[in-house]
Design brief:
Helix content: 40-55%
Structural class: alpha/beta
Number of strands: 20
Oligomer: single chain
Radius of gyration: 36 Å
């Protein structure tokens, strides 16, 4: 059971007194008043003073805010200045007030649907009657069309439209609009039958139920008025009380919820009264260049609201960085520098356009720099938070019995299973030893290991894996017994001992995220068992910004806040950094045209589709809103080459009168690692005086951290081969060639097991080899080969469809070449023939093992055929000394492929090269050509090379050696031999 500790809020700052502009608005508040002003002009201050004044005059004001957090903040500000007066502050949101109306005046109160639940019902209804959507059958199964339909339904209720109205307006507007009215009626019938309601319907019904004169309030105060949708405006207008509304149409950023800057134009018609403008801003960053370009609607009795006088002393800068990783590093440097200049971390914020994509790298950079982060749980969508991803993957495995490759590795490396990199490697090795299937990728093998556990009976001791699977089995049993998803997730967390593994800093961070997760998972009514797991997964996956999970605003962990622009709206910090301000990201690339766009719907017509100017204006408003959160200092960061493309700084930067330049070098390192590196460089610099170098060395010694100790610096000790030399070794023919060509590559590949996952071409080659062997054995008919290729290609992890199709055609052509080639060959006496033999070379016993693709009987002996899938052929001279073929021949001569046999040479057959027949290259037999170079003292050239390999293994040193394959080597990066250089 989770417990919570209540913390008394930190002291709120004193509310500023009203200036002359604000006082004039408040003095005129005897009827409806609308006050428009830019960021920092004191709109919220005016709203708070108005609410206090109404209370002190004996009235009962009702205050509306945009979100629950904003409502809680307003409530705290109002009550902080009430001097002990007993008053229960009525500060709420439109939806919360609508819920109150339904509870008090409605016959029943249906359960509220979450957005993912609503979209699920929309998709079910779309699939249930495809005949309604003639010509759109392909679209109704997509999530994008379901979201468009859901948006139109919400828009219709915001405008007070019924299904009949939607049917009437949709005639002649296109097939989707003509069908939407009937769908709307069916949707409402289904929700009524289930006794549930969505948020748009909630406000619509509240407007109908609201008494003609709701006399319980004497006045209404509305903060952030332009963010209201039409239904919210109508509900507040129906209250009939004197109204004071404040807001800025330039910062409307929730158009996807029905808000629009033109809401200020309807104020005189809905409420009447007076319109004022607040022009004096208390923020000192000049944003007039962007503000003047916004298409603000003209309001009767007011100007365009652009003339805002910023305070003096502000600064703004724009920097261009090379990558998202560098951007995160620069952010940490700028924040640390600001802290060294005297600014507290709580006075700083980092804003991103989308928290879902961009927050992760920034949080990791701040953690490395030791910079505290506040409100972290609220900054990251639950679906992207690592602890939540682990628990969701575990729930999915328990419910369905399988997960994807990424989820499988995530679970096994998590505290639930506790495997490290070595443990993961041992698991893969054990699974391959029992199950086989060497062509499987590591991720595919992990999925198979978790989904089909029958192999464990033959795997011996699997330790932590068995404990993890027992946890999953218990979770599966709990779901089968009807337990809720949050109860099962909590049992997984508690029974695994996860909390005991956390450090103090991890505990603070992860427990805050998990607290939000369990609060969300336990809220509302969800189905029990596996169905509840799937519902929870759908809801969390649908969150693109962090969920609003708290009823009351509370002080978070003091530190830098990392937020999306939507989360930051209405707040301010002395220093704000905005990340990712480049073309293509800000303004964002226009999405594909919608089949049915909610913005087209008006109360009396369906208008033509909007042009790109409206979308650009919305992007500019979002950017302006982000910049407006900076009170004194603003920094914009653009990434050049984001997503592998060349990106330019956003046009909005130029509108601010700025030019993106390279960021300045930090005056001091931002973390301990940087400090150690800087001091070490100074201590070893020949350009500095002896005294300066000694001072740097003394500081290193005084740091008291392990990385500062010279004994732990990389590269200061002599190279050591102690412990590696051995009396025996196991080699395959290809490993022998790798060892002789570049010992470093051999060590990293064979000993360190550091090979990256195989790519599509490697998988394609393995598939062709496998199908050729099936043809040779008669296990695959020639007529069935194309279909077998198609099925095999479908199992490979191609990300590009055309590439998969091209490789499919190449594989079919390769098999056809093989059939033409085989027709003229003697019958194979061995297919995929394995062998192993011992060979003693200069004191080391070598176990040589491998597999020969094909063996043919000739009059001179056994001929070896090795199939290749490469398209570029080596030279004939290089094939003459190819170690792989030479070892195959030596295996024949040693009797490993049949007693008393002799080698008749070897051939390479390139199945993907050639026209009708594949290209072939031949290696002479060891008997006809035992030596290739003068001075070889061993019986054959192959044995001479085995002796060289033995010398390398005996020395235990594996130097990097430049060779023709350096440019394709997986370990070229960082190669001390410079092999990766052009």
């Amino acid at each position: 059971m989770m417990t919570r500790r209540l913390v008394w809020p930190a002291a709120l700052p004193a509310l500023p007194e009203l200036n002359a502009e604000q006082a004039a608005v408040l003095a005129a508040w005897r009827g409806p008043v609308l006050a428009l002003g830019g960021p920092g002009t004191g709109k919220t201050v005016l709203a708070v003073h108005a609410a206090r004044a109404e209370v002190l005059a004996g009235g009962r004001p009702l205050v509306f805010a945009r979100t629950r957090q904003a409502a809680s903040h307003l409530r705290n500000l109002i009550t902080a200045g009430m001097a002990g007066r007993a008053w229960q502050p009525a500060v709420t949101t439109v939806h919360a007030f609508a819920r109150l109306i339904l509870e008090r005046f409605g016959d029943s109160y249906p359960r509220l649907l979450t957005a993912p639940e609503q979209e699920f019902r929309v998709r079910e209804l779309l699939a249930g009657n495809p005949g309604r959507w003639r010509g759109l059958e392909a679209a109704i199964t997509t999530g994008g069309f379901a979201r468009q339909v859901r948006g139109v339904l919400a828009r219709a209720r915001q405008l007070g439209l019924d299904p009949e109205d939607l049917t009437r307006l949709g005639k002649g507007a296109g097939p989707a609009w003509e069908a939407i009215g009937g769908f709307f009626a069916e949707y409402l019938d289904v929700l009524d039958a289930e006794e549930v309601i969505d948020y748009a319907e909630l406000v619509h019904r509240a407007r109908i139920l609201l008494p003609e004169r709701f006399g319980e309030v004497s006045a209404v105060v509305v903060d952030d008025y332009p963010e209201l949708d039409p239904s919210g405006l109508g509900l507040i207008a129906a209250l009939g009380a004197k109204t004071l509304a404040v807001g800025d149409p330039n910062t409307v950023i929730t158009a996807f919820r029905g808000a629009h800057p033109h809401a200020v134009q309807v104020f005189p018609g809905l409420f009447g009264g007076t319109v004022f403008e607040l022009r004096q801003s208390y923020r000192s960053v000049d944003l007039s260049g962007v503000r003047s370009r916004l298409p603000v609607p003209v309001v009767a009795g007011a100007g365009r609201g652009c003339a805002v006088r910023a305070a003096a002393g502000g600064s703004a800068a724009a920097y261009l960085v090379g990558s998202e990783a560098q951007q995160a590093k620069v952010i940490a440097e700028l924040l640390r520098q600001a802290e060294l200049e005297g600014l507290g971390f709580a006075d700083m914020a980092v804003l991103v356009r989308s928290a879902k994509r961009a927050v992760g790298p920034i949080l990791r950079a701040l953690a490395r720099a030791g910079i505290p982060v506040g409100a972290m749980a609220a900054s990251v969508p639950l679906a992207e938070a690592w602890p939540v991803r682990v628990l969701l993957a575990a729930l999915l495995l328990a419910a369905d019995g399988e997960v994807d490759a990424e989820q499988a590795e995530l679970l096994l490396r998590s505290p639930l299973a506790g495997l490290d990199a070595l443990g993961l490697h041992e698991l893969l090795t054990a699974h391959q030893a029992v199950v086989g299937q060497p062509a499987l990728r590591p991720g595919q093998r992990l999925v198979l290991a978790l989904s089909d556990t029958a192999w464990l009976g033959q795997a011996g001791d699997v330790g932590k894996l068995q404990e993890f699977l027992e946890l999953i089995a218990a979770a599966r049993a709990a779901l089968a017994d009807g337990k809720a998803a949050d109860e099962v997730a909590w049992a997984l967390y508690e029974d695994s001992g996860w909390a005991a593994e956390l450090t103090a800093s991890q505990a603070r961070r992860e427990l805050e995220i998990l607290r939000v997760f369990f609060t969300f998972a336990g809220a509302g009514e969800r189905r029990p068992g596996a169905a509840g797991v799937h519902m929870l997964l759908a809801e969390i996956a649908a969150q693109s910004i962090a969920a609003d999970t708290e009823r009351e605003a509370r002080p978070g962990q003091p530190g830098v806040e990392v937020l999306s622009v939507h989360q930051a709206k209405g707040r301010q910090w002395p220093f704000v950094i905005i990340a990712g301000v480049q073309e293509g990201a800000w303004p964002a690339v226009a999405p594909a045209a919608a089949l049915i766009d909610p913005a087209q719907l008006r109360s009396d017509e369906v208008v033509p589709k909007l042009d790109a100017r409206e979308g650009l204006a919305a992007e500019r408003r979002l950017f302006y809103t982000a910049c407006a959160t900076a009170a004194r200092r603003l920094v914009l960061l653009s990434v050049a080459g984001a997503s592998g493309e060349s990106c330019e700084p956003s046009r909005f930067i130029a509108e601010l009168g700025l030019e993106a330049v390279h960021p300045p070098q930090p005056k001091l390192p931002v973390d301990v690692a940087g400090l150690v590196a800087g001091l070490r460089a100074r201590a070893e610099s020949p350009e500095l005086s002896l005294g300066a170098r000694q001072a740097s060395a003394r500081l290193l010694g005084e740091l008291g951290v392990r990385s500062a100790d010279p004994a732990n610096w990389w590269g200061v000790r002599e190279l050591s081969g102690a412990g590696y030399p051995r009396s025996h070794a196991r080699l395959s023919p290809s490993q022998l060639g790798m060892l002789l060509e570049c010992p470093r590559r051999f060590f990293l590949s064979r000993e360190a097991r550091a090979d990256p996952p195989s790519g599509e071409l490697t998988e394609l080659g393995s598939m062709i080899h496998r199908l050729v062997a099936d043809l040779e054995r008669g296990e695959l008919a020639a007529a069935d080969a194309p279909q077998a290729v198609t099925e095999a290609i479908a199992q490979l992890p191609y990300e590009i469809a055309w590439q998969a199709a091209a490789h499919r055609d190449e594989a079919v052509a390769a098999l056809e070449r093989f059939r033409n080639w085989e027709a003229a060959r003697p019958e194979a006496v061995g297919v995929e023939q394995t062998f192993e033999f011992g060979y003693r070379a200069d004191g080391i016993e070598l176990a040589i093992h491998g597999t020969v693709d094909r063996l043919e009987r000739t009059s001179q002996g056994l001929r070896i055929v090795d199939f290749k899938s490469a398209t570029r052929l080596p030279s004939q001279a290089s094939v003459a000394g190819l170690e792989q073929l030479g070892v195959y021949q030596l295996a024949v001569e040693a009797g490993a492929l049949g007693a008393g046999e002799a080698s008749a040479g070897a051939e390479l057959v390139f199945l993907r090269a050639g026209d009708v027949l594949p290209k072939q290259l031949r290696q002479e037999s060891l008997r006809s050509r035992p030596h290739l170079e003068p001075g070889e003292t061993k019986p054959t050239w192959v044995e001479h090379r085995l002796a060289r390999a033995a010398d390398i293994l005996r020395a235990g040193e594996f130097p990097a050696t430049p060779c023709p394959n350096c440019r394709s080597c997986a370990f070229a990066a960082g190669c001390p031999g410079g092999g990766g250089d052009d």
